[in-house]
Amino acid sequence: MTSAPKRRFGAFDDEARAWNVSPGTALALFTVPFTGLLLVVSDLVRGDLGTRLLAEDSVVESATALVILAVAALAAIVARRLWSNGLRVQATVYALLTAAAVVGAGEEISWGGRLLGDEALESVRDANQQRELTIHNLDVVYEPYVAGMLLVGLYGSVGSWFVYRVEFWRTANWYLFMPPVFLAGAFLQLVAYRILRYTGSRGHNYGEWCELCVAAAIAVFIWLNLRRLRSRQSGAASTA
């Protein structure tokens, strides 16, 4: 008689099995986002490595723009597969995600505003909190944007845990729209950062790291769904 495999990480084991990844990989995906705290610690202890990496137009922000473009590409592929499978509503949602990701990537690079020079920036200076050609930093948009980011963080962290705990919600549709628990670390970190900022703390530009981690988590989530769809189609073809 064989014994059931030992569950070392609880929810991570369950979700790893459901998404066909190893428990160790699931745990790593949850914890890696929090390594960004080392950048803050490095600034507090000695040096300015974190400040330079998290600065506007620096390494982290550029990486975020590239990851968001990857999200757009992956979402477009998933949208096409869903549409071909007759899942038109789900495909439309992923198509909208593709469009949103393209806009998000443009926002990250200020729509090329710095290539246009200071004159272009001057035209939006009074309306933009960072003197950039971006929408989310406009005075009338910034507060709703911040609230939206908090809701995204809650959706991917608290929401994913709720869906995991309540099996009624774990349907094929929810697999398409709710990230697994092992990706919740990035979203949980975003929630913590936004709450910290609401208290008036400066945050050491840590929001740039949070945005990168959330974008990466979304990219992984969409890739996992793409792999799931391909696996289903391969299985259907082999039994036909």
Report what the structure shows:
With 240 residues, the protein is mainly α. It has one domain (54-226). It is 71% helix and 0% strand. The protein has 12 helices and no strands. The chain has helices at residues 11-19, 23-31, 37-45, 49-54, 59-84, 88-108, 113-116, 118-122, 139-165, 172-177, 184-198, 207-239. Helix 1 (11-19) crosses helix 2 (23-31) and helix 5 packs antiparallel against helix 6. The chain is globular and about 50 Å long. It starts with 10 loop residues before the first helix and ends with a helix.
- Indicate the radius of gyration in whole angstroms: 20 Å
Distance between the termini: 35 Å
The number of domains is 1
- Percent range for helical residues? over 70%
Share of residues in strands = under 5%
Low-confidence stretches: 1-6
Mean pLDDT over the full residue set:
82
Could you describe the largest sheet, including whether it forms a barrel? none
Total strands = 0
Principal-axes geometry comes out as: globular
At a glance:
The protein is an all-alpha fold and 240 residues long. 71% of the residues lie in helices and 0% in strands. It contains twelve helices and no strands.
Structure characteristics:
240 residues; mainly alpha; 12 helices; globular; disordered N terminus
